[in-house]
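Q: Convert this sequence to structure tokens.
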Amino acid sequence: MATMQDVARLANVSIATVSFTINNTKPVAPATRAKVEAAMNELGFRRNIVGRALAGKRTRIIALLFPALQHSFSGTVVQFFTSAAAAAQELGYNLVMWPISNDAGQTTELTSSGLVDGVVLMEVQFDDPRVGELEKSGTPFVLIGRTRDPRSLTYVDIDFEGTLVLAVRHLVGLGHTRIALLDDSVGSRDLRTFGPVSRSRDSFDAEMHRLGHEPAALTCEASPKAGTAAAHELLRSFPDTTAVIVQNELAATGFVSGLRHQGIDVPGDMSVLSVGSSAEMAAMADPELTVMASPSTELGRMGVEALIDQLEGRASGLRQELVMCRLEEGRSTGPRRDRARE
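A:
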């Protein structure tokens, strides 16, 4: 394995110059930097992150905290992570996913270890105990999501309230007035008062009432099997429904399949609009789902940029941004067509 001495010898520079180049601890002339980096590439030298941390008092590692054992790992989460990792790399940092629970104690173990410079927090609860621990530790952090009162925090998030209003209006514009919301029963996995679910349901109810229509709602686990069962429950509990907003990415395909098994044509008998999902997941359903696509790629990048701005001293204040989901037409929504039920 090549050493710094080998790099210095090949580049005809001092070991100190190699160290300054690797760790960015002192300015190095562009021509000299180019020689050092060329030698590193030729020798296959790999930067030692731990050594660089000891030299610069920073690891240049940031952690994305995701409670993987409590919340399903969906396609949109993959987009969040890959986008965030790419943004971190472009800005000279390494991003790791830290699959710990919502427990504040585990967050403390991470921040006290000295392994990470900052934290991107996902799956945020209204009263999230991890936020208090991060504030107490002094570790720089940003949220992808929002607490109940996020006014003093840096966050980027989906505008769930606005997205649900647009979803309702899209279906009402097609003539639907009996609309149901199917969301994710995250509460059963110890993610109670989960922001996206609570905000979306409140917005859905308020917009339906504003338009003079009675809202209907049901929930299920995040899996295709649960989605199939939810289709049966919908037809039993709300038989007059003509359109459904599904905010449960992993259940959506099973839900459509369950409707078809019950003889319900989509979208002829019932329109289905998937919210907060991805075009890739929508394409897995038959028919392909109309989707309010999650801005996962944008939010992953924005969250990392906001954190690194803090770490580099570039943040002039709190960054607080909401991004709407965007409508992408599929084949699962259409004009209302009344149907007789037995």
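The CA atoms of residues 46 and 293 lie 39 Å apart.
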